């Protein structure tokens, strides 16, 4: 299956006064096809968010690049942004704007034609059952309501590629479950999804393939069955520890 996301030796280096050169992402390479949920699994500080921020053109890589929907993230950032939706647990909403205003605002930012935007808003309101609070200011919404609006904003321009950066952090179990079901539905819609998490159960349930990342470097890529076969371990937590220990990522 042809890849819609091709990541090629993506590297981000920061300079720190105390630690010197810090490789937040170190020659990260992988691909993702339409209808695939690709997981980036690693602890906090492993390089997951840095990788997604480079792919979404929020930050520029030090070296390497990626092609998203055939557009280069370094050379064609505007076209890349039109092809992606990026959802993060840290993404805030404009507190004085209503969900309806937010969806329309972001739709216009993406140059969605007026009639299509109207249809897209109606579709998203129906899918995520937002009709009861569409005209309520965002600062008066519950966490679950805000998350639905954030998802709607991510999808308003109907992008073929979606990035989810720890999207269930801080959510209660019911809202997190809704988020998980939504990501699963993306597979049926033939969207390419790149999903970062440090929660093993989420990765096991959602992902077709996984990249194990630690200290900015990918240590293995494969389906759960392939990683189980490679390590001889059954549970993802044990697989993760085994892979990064044997690849020099953990000191005994």
Give the structure's gist in a few sentences.
The protein has 252 residues and is an alpha/beta fold. It has 9 helices and 10 strands.
CATH homology group: P-loop containing nucleotide triphosphate hydrolases
Mean pLDDT: 91
The total strand number stands at 10
| Termini separation | 40 Å
CATH architecture: 3-Layer(aba) Sandwich
What is the SS-derived class?
Answer: alpha/beta
Query: Low-confidence runs (pLDDT<50, min 5 residues)?
Result: none
Shape category = globular
Largest sheet: 6 strands, mixed
Helix content: 25-40%
Strand content: 25-35%
Question: What is the CATH class name?
Answer: Alpha Beta
Return the CATH topology.
Rossmann fold
**Helix segment count?**
9
Radius of gyration, in Å, reads 19 Å
Major sheet strand order: 6-7-8-3-9-10
* SSE ordering: EEEHEEHEHHHEHEHEEHH
Domain module tally: 1
